[in-house]
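> @MW can you paste both from yesterday?
MW: sure, first one:
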Amino acid sequence: MAIVDSILMELDQEAKTTQRVLDRIPEDKLTWKPHAKSYSLGQLGLHIARGQGFLADAVSKDSFEIGNMSQPESQNKKEILDAFTQSTAHAKQTLAKLDDARMMATWTATRNGKVLMSTPRIGFIRAVVMNHFYHHRGQLSVYLRLLDVPVPSIYGPSADENPFA
């Protein structure tokens, strides 16, 4: 088994869970924010939806210059759901091309030419491509709770959904 195979299996499994969370986004609340410093619901949803494909493109190169970090506002829920479908498929296709040597090779992130991170590519994939979006999915589940939207099961029962019952 190649290193990337375990990443692709996890991406498939987690995409199903992320889809359930994104499906719960109420379209009439896309501009809602839990705090003035927070992303809006639409921004957070779109960030989660687009992120894996964007980062897969970044990691397919040997280095990546980090540019504008602002998050666009989503126009509607369909945009978020379509972006997630496309981004997940693109991430899987892009990552599948990485052999073990490439996965272990050093990858570098820069901003304005300054090195921010230099790590084996698999480390970036694990810490940012994967874990970073699980973190944001958790944020989204809190947004749903604050909006009184039933939270789906993620890794086990939620207060609203118990797949083991």
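MW: second:
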Amino acid sequence: MPFNTVAENTFDLSGLRRMIKIAQEHNIELVLFFYPRHAYSLEMDNQCGDQDTYWRAMKQIASLIETEAKPDQVRGLAILQL
């Protein structure tokens, strides 16, 4: 099932937006860590029809970083636990 882009599927990223702005103002590198999710957890999401929620959030976070942060200012780390 492709990502659903309707407004009800957007996440509140105002806190992240503020963090990026503060990091820019103080010339600080911001490193984001996405806590690992076990493959079984992702499979349960898939079975329940919620498989794209996690990836929609990641996509929106990546888009926000791409549009609002300097290229070398923010790094994101995501690990999938198998």
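> thanks! Confidence is low (pLDDT under 50) at residues 1-5.
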